Amino acid sequence: METDRPEDAENAFREAIRVCDPLQAEYPEMREYREHQARTYESLGFLFRKLGRAEQAESPSRTALELWQALAAKNPDVPNYLKNVATSSAGLGLSLIVMERFDEAAAVFEQTHQALEKLVEQFPDKDEYHDRLAWFLSTCPAVRFRDPDRALAHARRAVELAPESGNAWQSLGVAHYRSENWQDAVAALNRLGELCSDCDSRKDFFLAMSYQRLGDLEQARQCYRSAVETMEQRSPRDLDVLPIRAEAAGQLGIEDGKPNPEN
Known about the structure:
Blueprint: H1 6-26, H2 31-50, H3 54-74, H4 79-98, H5 102-122, H6 127-139, H7 148-161, H8 166-178, H9 182-195, H10 201-214, H11 217-234, H12 242-252
């Protein structure tokens, strides 16, 4: 989602909500209306997280989660609803972490975890679900949910199922990093770079940390600078990336003047 015209985007989402809410209320059995309503709330929450506005992201993210949960409960044969439960709960959990409501965040992330585990169990040959679970187990802001060994297993499975998937290689690189396999992390993340000419900043932040662990400080700082440049050009207050940027800055001993969320 582009955020160079955030006011226009916010207004468009709010107008869509104004139209969707009464339609869904009048026709509660029309699944398409509830889907559109859920996507619109989710998109508004996502926009606010990209802009670093955690407090504003909470309400639409929570509404989206409740809508997806209702759809998933009523339609257990539609895996996309459960996938969206995982996506919405992860976004809401991140906003709660930023607001330092850690216990609430942990409860929400538990929903993310359960949804992803269920998807992998039901669809063991679907690369996307292994990839999403691997990423969650490697990067969840509530560190109690991190499990490097299982993240690595699921990331490897994702790459096995989809060897040309950039997302799978990114999850594999990060899982290797969390497992302290620094050289393997570099190899996987560089493979991602070969597959994706327009990667977001997370690749280079993890490359920076991996090179630092290998003792190549010059390459580490070069990757860090590249990641910061990419982030500043796209979404400098992105709540999904700020924690990774902060981790990389701390790992490299860099005083980072990154923008604060909400400012």
